[in-house]
Write a structure and sequence with these properties.
Blueprint: H1 7-42, H2 50-60, E1 63-66, E2 72-77, E3 86-91, H3 102-111, E4 114-119, H4 133-145, E5 153-158, H5 160-171, E6 176-182, H6 188-195, H7 201-204, H8 211-215, E7 221-227, H9 235-244, E8 249-254, H10 267-278
Parallel strand pairs: 3-4, 3-5, 5-6, 6-7, 7-8
Antiparallel strand pairs: 1-2, 2-4
């Protein structure tokens, strides 16, 4: 007897088809939801009132950094000894803000007579706007126009900010003398795909921060720090960025460190890092 088209088999095929259609609909809704909410998933800006921001800045020895129109674009701390031997622009990681980067100013100014500038991202702390790849890059463009040009300019990038630093280095290769990158990545798309392996991230992600592509246009010194226990930006993505860069470079590896502790470096490290990026590239 042929059971191919028996009522029981037809019911099973019907139920299977219904489950498959339901699964595809749910998967599609998941993709649409992630696409619609992606910037809320990527950016986690802290919010401060201007009074709070000013108070924290005073405690950290920072002063407002303003553009030509008088609008605040971050904070700065001049070198104790003037004229400064250089300037450094800090672009921080996600969840941070400019006043929280005073530790970089402390560390750098113990190692070099540099003026320190810290960019505030749109939508972070008390700066108006909304964060996106486009708005962060535009803020970085504005910032670099407001750093004096009478001394070498270096970059310090952290996590999300390493994509901004690579954008600046690739866009203004003759302006940037060198940079140090903490927990960097080759492309934000790859990091997002790692965290959401079941989604077609490459089709959904609007803000990709293709750091390696930008870095291809830079020829200065690049120092990269990776942490073996980094679960936010696993070290393999920093290694990919390092491997893709053809210019003078140095890799510092810290197997016991995580995404946050990798930025907590000793004064000796900062002396080595400053010496490295100050050395003229051949």
């Amino acid at each position: 007897m042929n059971h191919t088209d028996s009522p029981a088999r037809k019911r099973r095929r019907f139920r299977l088809g219904r489950w498959l259609r339901s699964g595809l609909i749910l998967y599609g809704l998941l993709c649409l939801g992630c696409a619609a909410l992606q910037r809320k998933m990527i950016y986690h800006p802290p919010h401060l009132t201007p009074a709070q921001n000013e108070a924290y800045a005073r405690q950290a020895g920072l002063e407002r950094w303003r553009n030509a129109e008088g609008q605040p674009i971050g904070f700065k701390r001049p070198a104790p000894l003037q004229p400064a031997a250089g300037s450094v622009l800090v672009v921080y990681g996600n969840g941070g803000c400019a006043v929280g980067c005073s530790r970089y100013a402390d560390a750098v100014q113990q190692a070099a007579a540099w003026d320190v500038y810290i960019l505030e991202y749109p939508g972070y702390a008390d700066r108006p706007g909304s964060p996106s790849e486009k708005s962060l890059f535009a803020a970085a463009d504005e910032a670099i126009r407001h750093v004096p040009t009478n001394a070498p300019l270096y970059l310090i990038g952290e996590s999300l900010g390493t994509g901004v630093a690579c954008y600046l280095a690739g866009t203004y290769p003759d302006r940037i003398a060198g940079m140090i990158l903490f927990a960097p990545y080759n492309c934000l798309t790859d990091v997002a795909q790692y965290h959401m392996p079941v989604l077609p991230v490459r089709w959904l992600l609007a803000d990709t921060f293709p750091a390696a592509d930008y870095l291809n246009h830079f020829h200065g010194r690049v120092g990269i720090l990776v942490a073996g226990q980094d679960r936010v930006v696993p070290e393999k993505f920093g290694r990919r960025l390092y491997a893709s860069y053809a210019g003078p470079k140095q890799l510092w590896e810290f197997p016991p460190d995580n995404h946050w502790s990798v930025t907590e470096r000793s004064p000796e490290f900062w002396r080595q890092a400053v010496t490295f990026i100050q050395t003229p590239a051949n």
